[in-house]
Amino acid sequence: MQFVNMEVWKRSRLLAIALYREMAELRDFGFKDQITRSALSVPSNIAEGLERGTNPDKCRFIEYAKGSVAELRTQIDIGIEIGYIPIDIGKKWIKECCELSLMLVGLIRTLKNKSRIELHEAE
User: Fold this and answer.
1) What 3 state SS string does the chain have?
2) pLDDT grade, residue 116 (50/70/90)?
3) Is the dihedral of CA 25, 64, 48, 59 positive or negative?
């Protein structure tokens, strides 16, 4: 599995790019730093995980990515409430976070099942 071919990586990358562009002029540097780090963490952890050698290592990094999606979703919600993120954009991003989370759950499940099959075949 090459990460650059994975739909979940492509979509999380695009979300991070959109978020960086939208936040470019934000003067609250603490909030801006936190939300952009969360967004960047998602595709980065997917990439790092899928380049790992074993499925348990891969799963661990995909789980980190899933955690970062939840963190990002929370920060988007807060950003909407405090007026940093326009409601229409924020709702679109939250929807994308929900979909990315489901995609990551599916990837984790696939990797864990593959590990079980490999373990069973080795016996």
Assistant:
1) CCHHHCHHHHHHHHHHHHHHHHHCCCCCHHHHHHHHHHHHHHHHHHHHHHCCCCHHHHHHHHHHHHHHHHHHHHHHHHHHHCCCCCHHHHHHHHHHHHHHHHHHHHHHHHHHHHHHHHHHHHC
2) low
3) negative
Query: Which residue carries 């980065």 as its tokens?
Result: 44
CA dist 2 and 78 (Å) reads 34
Q: Give CA–CA dist 58/83, Å, rounded.
A: 37
Place of tokens 């969360």: 38
